Amino acid sequence: MPKITFIDVDGTSYDAMVDAGLSLMEGAINVGVPGVLAICGGSCACSTCHGYIDDAWVALVGGPNDIEDATLELANERRAGSRLTCQVQVTAAMDGLVVHVAKND
Ligand code: FES
């Protein structure tokens, strides 16, 4: 089961063991990562699950599709590694992935 590390806006790390097939957002919610609000419940409509894929992992995770890209325009401080964590499906290859939670308020 892939281990995903989430780092909140205060720099605190949270390790989550996330089943492949779940979203990063679901993995974060399951361990109570602060700042992953996910107000729309994962339907790519709110941007409050915004996070930054660590630079070392951006190539593997990939970028957003057109629908996610449009919703990301609503997010605070969009950067090169920005993704909506509800739209990233965890795979076995993501074991060790680091995600920095964005300021989602
Ligand atoms: S939970 Fe709303 S866009 Fe991800």
Topology:
Blueprint: E1 3-7, E2 13-17, H1 24-30, E3 50-53, H2 58-61, H3 66-72, E4 82-84, E5 98-101
Parallel strand pairs: 1-5
Antiparallel strand pairs: 1-2, 3-4, 3-5
The protein binds FE2/S2 (inorganic) cluster.
Key features of this structure:
single chain, 105 residues, alpha+beta, Ubiquitin-like (UB roll), 5 strands, binds FE2/S2 (inorganic) cluster
Structure description:
- It is a single chain.
- The protein starts with a strand and ends with a strand.
- The chain has a single domain, classed as Beta-grasp domain (Ubiquitin-like (UB roll)).
- The protein contains 3 helices and 5 strands, in the order ββαβααββ.
- The longest helix is centred in the N-terminal third of the chain and has 7 residues, at 24-30.
- It is globular.
- It has helices spanning 24-30, 58-61, 66-72; strands at residues 3-7, 13-17, 50-53, 82-84, 98-101.
- The model has no long low-confidence stretch (mean pLDDT 97).
- The protein is 17% helix and 20% strand.
- Strands 2-1-5-3-4 form a 5-stranded mixed β-sheet.
- It is α+β, with helices and mostly antiparallel strands.
- A hairpin with a 5-residue loop joins strand 1 (3-7) and strand 2.
- The chain binds FE2/S2 (inorganic) cluster (FES).
Listed once per kind, the bound small molecules are:
FE2/S2 (inorganic) cluster
**Could you give the count of β-strands?**
5
Q: Mean pLDDT, as a whole number?
A: 97
The CATH topology name reads Ubiquitin-like (UB roll)
H/I helix tally: 3
